[in-house]
Amino acid sequence: MRYISTRGQAPALNFEEVVLTGLAEDGGLYVPEELPQFSHDELEAMAGLPYTEVAFRVMKPFVGDEIDDATFRRLIEETYGTFKHAAVTPLNQLDHNHWLLELFHGPTLAFKDVALQLLGRLLDHFLARRGEKGVIMGATSGDTGSAAIEGCRHCDNLDIFILHPHNRVSPVQRRQMTTVLAENVHNIAIEGNFDDAQAIVKGSFADQAFLRGTRLIAVNSINWARIMAQIVYYVAAGVALGAPHREVSFTVPSANFGNLFAGYMARRMGLPVKQFVIATNANDILHRTLTENDFSKRELQATLAPSMDIVVSSNFERLLFEAYGRNSTAVREVLERFQREPAALADAPLAELRRLFASHRVDDDTILEVIREAFGATGELLDPHTAIGYRAAQRARSDDTTPMITLATAHPAKFEEAVVRAGFEGAPLPEAMQDLMAREERYDVLPAELAAVQRFVAEHRH
Ligand SMILES: Cc1ncc(COP(=O)(O)O)c(C=O)c1O
Ligand SMILES: N[C@@H](CCOP(=O)(O)O)C(=O)O
């Protein structure tokens, strides 16, 4: 399998190279040159299989023969062996036709674990095979950081630098990162927001001289392996609810759009998906683009769903690439315009997106209302991000007969503020994290400046 850049001006890479890199050198994101296709029979055969077997079948075409089957199966088994639910990503029925896809049973209690626990193992495998070392730089609004640290902290060949927005992640999220005191783990609190952190990471890919030749690796969803691993749970959930014999729909709490883009890939590979609902918080660029063709930046707002406090949605570029018929010149133009001024999409790609995607924006008051309402109706205590999805599914689904699967992206224990403000005592942390709030923390606070961060990385890597 070859991977090409959405901006069309970077060399094509193989799977190993694409995992070991981040942004393409032309500033684009890598996507597969051709998408594997699953036939009706192949999808049908996946129903009822263990998650790990579905994972192997879905991801194998992307990996090709770059990892032998026995090794790849071992990496998959080890990865999902860290999850606390036998089904890995169980479906939980809420009413006659609405399901929650629980993605928070991994070690750090958010959907990021599904991909990042695998990515850490893939990186370790490739770097050890090459006898190379690497430096990871990642930006987090709270969840990617801890999942990446958990996935990579045992990798001898890696230093990991995670940038989080200072005082803008929840206390549990911060401590899940900053209490990991391993020598190769470095937490940086940026005096800015997530977009600032993400811009510094992307800027570092554009100018890597500060690393003097050491490889820079991405763990954010700009890394294709993140998307690849997330495709699996769409397929597993879809076939569990009757695909390919019937269509299913998905609602996805969205911000950087890596999660929903994986669902879109699953559809392009053959999963019969009727509708995707994009659920946003007040940082609603995806909703505005879809409904008003307003593809423009606005000031980032702090909300009760802090992991979705993102304005510049990286993976929307991958969707635009598909909607523009893989015309990288057109994609480059629209994204360059977006950096300077409000941009609008051309008529045909916008119509293409509207055919498949609906969207809904949920404000903080509604998040609290939904947490109470959903608990009353179903007995489930939703985290604030999942609450956004729950309401969006109710408001934007196109019909009541297609099964609707709402992605539950995090465990409520990570977001005490919203849970308590909704009137609950809080959600207990799992046993293994009981002492989290008493553990020693280590992190450095830095200005949101590329040079300051690059200097820090250069000084602290091993
Ligand atoms: C809990 C949670 N829900 C939803 C999202 C949004 O996912 P995505 O960025 O893939 O759109 C994130 C992170 O971005 C998250 O951490
Ligand atoms: N919500 C994310 C933001 C980063 O998104 P990613 O999927 O691109 O890593 C977080 O919690 O850090």
TrEMBL record:
The keyword Lyase applies. GO terms for biological process: threonine biosynthetic process. InterPro entries: Ser/Thr_deHydtase_PyrdxlP-BS, Thr_synth_N, Thr_synth_N_sf, Thr_synthase-like, Threonine_Synthase, TrpB-like_PALP, TrpB-like_PALP_sf. This is Threonine synthase. Pathway: Amino-acid biosynthesis; L-threonine biosynthesis; L-threonine from L-aspartate: step 5/5. CDD domains: Thr-synth_2 (cd01560). The lineage of its organism: Bacteria, Pseudomonadati, Pseudomonadota, Gammaproteobacteria, Oceanospirillales. One of its GO terms (molecular function) is pyridoxal phosphate binding. Residues 2-80 form the Threonine synthase N-terminal domain. Residues 88-333 form the Tryptophan synthase beta chain-like PALP domain. Its cofactor is pyridoxal 5'-phosphate. Keywords: Amino-acid biosynthesis, Lyase, Pyridoxal phosphate, Threonine biosynthesis. Signal peptide: none annotated. It comes from Kushneria sinocarnis.
